[in-house]
Amino acid sequence: MKKTLLSITVVILLFAGCNDKDDTTPKAEKWYISKSIEKRGSGNADDTTVVTYNADNTVKEFSSGSGIDYQASGPVYEGGKIIRIQEKRSEQGIPGTRASFVYTGDQLTRINNFGYDADRNEWYDESYDSLVYKNGKLSEFYEFEKTGYTLFFKLTWEGSNVKTVERSSKAPEDAAYTLHSIATNTYDNKAALHLLLNNNYIWLVNVMNFENLSANNLVKQEVHYQPSGILNDRTTITLTYNDAGLPEGIDTKWEYLQVDPSHVENSQTLFIYAKR
């Protein structure tokens, strides 16, 4: 499982109340994530991501770093849907579209992916994704690269959660896909953290993290190589909650069992909330 912009570990609550002189009508405010701080451990600077919102509480932008390390991305909306994600980095001469989204009705059916060529100072077509649904849920995901190489993911669901993901690939000269791995997911019974942000934005930022389509929080993922069935890596996530029922934090542990069973990576992230 890839590390995402919002991994998670201890929460500070910021209260943004209304001014009684301005308006005496009670407002139905909700908690929103305003900042995440990834704790990188001794000798490493913390990685802080700031989240801003539009007036209707949809996500406006994620930003992190400063100077040469600055990067930011944010969605563009049309008709209540995210139609593209814009990205800008300190090394890029111009902001550009990182991904654009095509819908059939209410279902996302195609994603166009773009890369940035720093030497030519321009964005270029990198690949596109095709999405297939069964009973209203994503069941197959294809990534078609410009080289002719194709990735294929087959999803199975258990209730409202993505239970397994089969990863296959096919080179241009191949007649059929080759199965490489199967990821098996385990969830808690709490509402998923990514649901705090509207429009499936956390998933759209990294669409191959299919667990971010689920209703509950991922607590363990095990990836078995195929056809051997050997357990290759394991991700374990521990969530804590505050009295308001919001995620207080997450400890994430990555074990790369085939590379080096003794090597373990850990991540902790602090979430800061604000009411809107």
Plain-language structure description:
The chain is mostly beta strands and 276 residues long. The protein has a domain at 75-267: Porin (Beta Barrel), CATH 2.40.160. It has 1 helix and 17 strands. A 16-stranded antiparallel β-barrel has the order 2-3-4-5-6-7-8-9-10-11-12-13-14-15-16-17. Residues 2-24 have low confidence and may be disordered.
Strand arrangement in the largest pleated sheet: 2-3-4-5-6-7-8-9-10-11-12-13-14-15-16-17
Which band does the percent of strand residues land in?
over 45%
Order of helices and strands: EEEEEEEEEEEEEHEEEE
Radius of gyration: 20 Å
Annotated CATH architecture of the domain at 75-267 = Beta Barrel
Total of DSSP H or I helical runs spanning 4+ residues: 1
Helix content: under 10%
Mind describing the biggest β-sheet?
Answer: 16 strands, antiparallel, barrel
The CATH topology of the domain at 75-267, please?
Answer: Porin
